[in-house]
Amino acid sequence: MSILSPTQRLLSPGGVAEFVRASFGPDGRVRDCGPLTGGGFAAVWWVRLDDGRDVVLKVAPLPSVRLLRYETDLLAAEARYFRLVAEHAPRVPVPPVLHHGRDPHLGEWLVTGWLPGRALPDLDGDDSAARYDFGVAMATLHRITGDRFGYDADRTGGATWSAAFAAIIDDLLADAADWDITLPTPSQRIRALVARHADLLDQVRRPALLHFDGWDGNVLAATGRSGPAAAPDGDVPAAPDDTGAYRMCGLVDGERFLYGDPLLDLVSPLLFRRAEDEPEHPFLRGYADTTGMPLVFDDGARRRLALYRMHLHLLMTVEMPSRGITPDNDPGRHTLLAKLLDRDLADLSGH
């Protein structure tokens, strides 16, 4: 397996078998396994057990690896997220947690059940019904309320949404300084823009459960013919069967969850675009139909969305060195994120 990100551990079938034994005991045996691609933080493999079950193994970076501040204990957070959703929103299809382990020798890892389907970018056909379903799922998740704003388990957060959001931005700016990252504007300007909008952020009074990372690669869809029997390691895109459209059947990678403004979760599903420019997008229609209220993109909502896009684009910029991404090996990403951050800052500076 070619490791592109310094945070991802290099695994082998023998190492995977060791994690399986540590999770399920000496009788846990691997029939087949292989790496999964798409993420850049943890090492992720599909595993077919001797008893016929398909599972997913996710292994955290080694303790010696430099991480961003918000990336502390992400696998433990993911286990909490999946268990929380399973308990409070059981109709939202997240993987069942089978084992979360820590070991001085092995490190930290997570084993979940394998979900059927393919990620949205891998589909061959109309995905609008699956995106509508994702909007329904997201609105359902937003009914879950946290005890405070921000990340859970004593990580960065606050009693108000403005305090939590400012602290989250401060962490990213501190990471940028630590990694010597050149931003398109001084950090003081970003902090000032967040502070200027504090009253607007504090119109959010309820800390809703947010997935945050709802880009297309974390949404799985299938048709009636698809299911766990489809080879996890196959490279043939899923295709609709004779009965109709794809439907959402899985939501994965919940480790970055936090509590805050539901509008934040309208950013990643329309990555690099503006939700307010696409009110008829199937994701937004599913969301609105489930809440029973139309999405109103007034001036305040647009400014909050601009703040959340700035946050996402800042995060994607700051994480690049830790993922081994440079202007030389991925110049397009650097150029795009610089352009998007400039646009976000211009949108916010106009108010």
Quick overview:
By secondary structure, the protein is α+β, with helices and mostly antiparallel strands. The protein is 35% helix and 15% strand. It contains nine helices and twelve strands.
Order of strands, main sheet, comes to: 1-2-3-5-4
Give the oligomeric state: single chain
Mean pLDDT: 93
Q: How many individual β-strands?
A: 12
Taking the sheet with the most strands, its summary is: 5 strands, antiparallel
Which descriptor suits the 3D outline?
A: globular
- Relative strand content: 15-25%
Instruction: Report the span from N to C terminus.
Output: 48 Å
Total count of helical runs of at least 4 residues: 9
Helix residue percentage = 25-40%
Q: Specify the structural class.
A: alpha+beta
- What's the helix-strand series? HEEEHEEEHEEHHHEEEEHHH
Q: How is the secondary structure organized here?
A:
Layout: H1 13-24, E1 30-35, E2 43-49, E3 54-59, H2 74-88, E4 97-103, E5 107-113, E6 118-119, H3 128-141, E7 149-150, E8 157-158, H4 161-178, H5 187-196, H6 198-201, E9 208-210, E10 219-222, E11 247-251, E12 258-260, H7 282-291, H8 299-318, H9 331-349
Antiparallel strand pairs: 1-2, 2-3, 3-5, 4-5, 6-10, 7-8, 9-12, 10-11
Helix pairs in contact: 3-7, 4-5, 4-8, 8-9
Describe this structure in words.
With 351 residues, this protein is of the alpha+beta class. It is built from nine helices and twelve strands. It has a five-stranded antiparallel sheet, with helices on both faces. A three-stranded antiparallel sheet has the order 6-10-11, with helices on one face. Strands 7-8 form a two-stranded antiparallel sheet. A hairpin with a 3-residue loop joins strand 4 and strand 5. Helix 4 packs parallel to helix 8 and helix 8 runs antiparallel to helix 9. The longest helix is centred in the C-terminal third of the chain and has 20 residues. The chain is globular and about 60 Å long.
